[in-house]
């Protein structure tokens, strides 16, 4: 990795450790861009454990996740994601923190009590998501990868903001950028539209929609060992926003498997974020390719 890339990586790591700003936004999963590498990386499954912690409210969520990748063609894939959540609101329920999210009818009545959901520890399955990843060339911007993820409305509203019965749809486009033999970067652009829950417990304001974008910097992933850092933003309706910085390292294991460790810091305002720190462990079966493939710049 060259000196400019190392300098940028150092700056991002320092930002990761600084305090966030002091300024409600629902959780959505990341687009599985690793599935675009090649058929070797798209031949199996991934299992993960993620923990979300918010020091301001005491909220904590543990998530066990599973991801299935079904390749088709040379560089495209179908994706299925699902997970199980344990959400601890530390006696501060979502409607106490964000009272305006309570669904109220025109006559001022509501079928949701102010104490909803009535318990601070809630367990349940996350909403499953179906996705598609394909190469896509855009005018001016060039060759990149296009991703689509749609959540099924079978989650539990009691798990909000980590999950609910809403239908989130995300469109993302990622443009890889070569930085030589040992480093790589990427820029991402996208839009998310979230349709509110069908169970009339949460107001539509609980599901803002808007634009997404981000940048990445990493050692060459085709070396199968390295580190990467990314900054991602969600600029949603009604002034809701997210700014997240994440550091990820991956280690090759036997039989082509890969272990990933990640640490994320939410930089958004307190009124918006649901977690301050995010820690994850991900085991990918099949691993990353051992040889470099042609990139979008070739």
Based on secondary structure, the structural category is mainly beta
Number of helices: 2
Strand order of the largest sheet: 1-2-3-5-6-7-8-9-10-11-12-13
Taking pLDDT < 50 over at least 5 consecutive residues as the criterion, the unreliable ranges are 14-23, 287-296
Largest sheet: 12 strands, antiparallel, barrel
Which class in CATH terms? Mainly Beta
Helical coverage, percent range? under 10%
CATH topology: Porin
- Number of beta strands: 13
- Give the DSSP E fraction (strand runs of 2 or more residues): over 45%
Walk me through this protein's architecture.
The protein has 298 residues and is mainly β. It has one domain: monomeric porin ompg (Porin, Beta Barrel). The chain has two helices and 13 strands. It has a twelve-stranded antiparallel β-barrel. A hairpin with a 3-residue loop joins strand 2 and strand 3. The longest helix is centred in the N-terminal third of the chain and has 15 residues, at 3-17. It is globular, with a radius of gyration of 20 Å. It starts with a helix and ends in a 14-residue tail after the last strand. The relative contact order is 0.20. Mean pLDDT is 81; it is low at 14-23 and 287-296.
Helix-strand blueprint:
Blueprint: H1 3-17, E1 45-53, E2 60-72, E3 76-88, H2 94-97, E4 121-125, E5 129-138, E6 142-151, E7 167-178, E8 183-195, E9 210-219, E10 226-236, E11 241-252, E12 258-266, E13 277-284
Antiparallel strand pairs: 1-2, 1-13, 2-3, 3-4, 3-5, 5-6, 6-7, 7-8, 8-9, 9-10, 10-11, 11-12, 12-13
């Amino acid at each position: 990795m060259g000196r400019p890339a190392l300098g940028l990586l150092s700056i991002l790591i320092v930002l990761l450790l600084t305090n966030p700003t002091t300024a409600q936004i629902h959780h959505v999963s990341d687009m599985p861009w690793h599935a675009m590498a090649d058929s070797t990386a798209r031949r199996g499954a991934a299992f993960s454990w993620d923990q979300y912690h918010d020091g301001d409210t005491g909220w904590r969520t543990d998530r066990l996740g599973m991801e299935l990748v079904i390749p088709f063609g040379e560089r495209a894939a179908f994706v299925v994601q699902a997970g199980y959540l344990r959400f601890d609101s530390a006696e501060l329920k979502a409607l106490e923190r964000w009272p305006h999210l309570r669904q109220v009818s025109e006559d001022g009545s509501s079928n949701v009590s102010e104490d909803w959901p009535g318990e601070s520890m809630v367990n349940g399955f996350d909403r499953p998501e179906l996705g598609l990843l394909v190469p896509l060339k855009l005018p001016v911007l060039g060759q990149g990868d296009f991703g689509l993820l749609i959540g099924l409305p079978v989650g539990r509203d009691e798990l909000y903001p980590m999950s609910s019965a809403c239908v989130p749809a995300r469109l993302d486009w990622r443009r890889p950028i070569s930085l030589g033999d040992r480093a790589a970067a990427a820029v991402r652009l996208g839009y998310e539209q979230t349709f509110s829950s069908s169970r009339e417990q949460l107001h539509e304001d609980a599901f803002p929609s808007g634009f997404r974008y981000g940048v990445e910097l990493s050692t060459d992933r085709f070396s199968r060992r390295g580190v990467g850092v990314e900054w991602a933003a969600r600029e949603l309706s009604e002034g809701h926003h997210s700014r997240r910085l994440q550091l990820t390292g991956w280690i090759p294991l036997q039989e082509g498997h890969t272990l990933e460790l990640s640490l994320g810091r939410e930089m958004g305002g307190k009124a918006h974020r649901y977690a301050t720190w995010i820690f994850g462990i991900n085991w990918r079966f099949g691993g990353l390719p051992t040889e470099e493939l042609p990139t979008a710049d070739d």
